[in-house]
Specification:
single chain; 298 residues; alpha/beta; 8 helices
Length: 298
Amino acid sequence: MKRSWIIGSRGSKLALKQTEITINRLKSLYPDHDFGIKIIKTTGDTIWDKPLPLIGGKGLFVKEIEEALLKGEIDMAVHSMKDLPTEIKDELTIAAMLEREDPRDVFISDRYDRLSDVRPDGTIGTSSTRRRSQILHYLKDIRVVDLRGNVDTRIKKLSHLKLDGIILAYAGVKRMGFEERIKEILPLDVMVPPSGQGAVGIETRKDTGALEIVRPINHERTFMEVTLERAIQSGIGGGCQIPLGINASIKNSKIELYLALGGEKGGLLIKKRLEGSIDKEKELIENALKALNKTNAP
């Protein structure tokens, strides 16, 4: 088996940090193997002046990387699982996921200690329709403005645009070293994250030795949780265009599931918490889809 591997990654600081974490895990198992990084610019990295739903939603940060994987230009790809569409090419597979970081969102502000402290007519920045719908449900008189960019860019815009606060993923904030800026970790009954948030996935071709190289670093519980979330997302057709929050947590053979589905004009159509045992996972997925599809019906 070859001992030199090329890993595809976006060029953002967070993407490279996650790729570095992955390489360190692999090197601990294969110290005599070489792991190089090939930076690939995706569509999502070239358009910054439009909201994500207007330029294609999910897939914007992975399409070019997957094309390189299919062509054999790279051996594996490192993704944020929340960016990866549920439908992937038949020749490709998610070979492993690293242990998940806390999947929740966080509130960052220079003025307030909690999201609930923001006064009426205050302004919150986020690029996510999912976050927008849940913020407007939680604080109906708040203004929500579009805010795109890398983690450090959005934190800088907090003061530059004189915002009352911004909402970011805890995992990205922690991995980039901005944990001290967090004022509040938002509980799941306030803000349900998207499927896959906090998880790093490694994608490979099915017909390559990279698949076997990567499998030992897979974190089983994370893989099970994210796979369940993605099954629900696939069933409802949820991408960036749909304000959909799904979070599954497995503990002691029990699954706790939070769902949130937003309306097109803001606010929430549904917010639900379900429970089930691992041996009845399919039944839990079916119940989640019934709730979401019923609410999402025309």
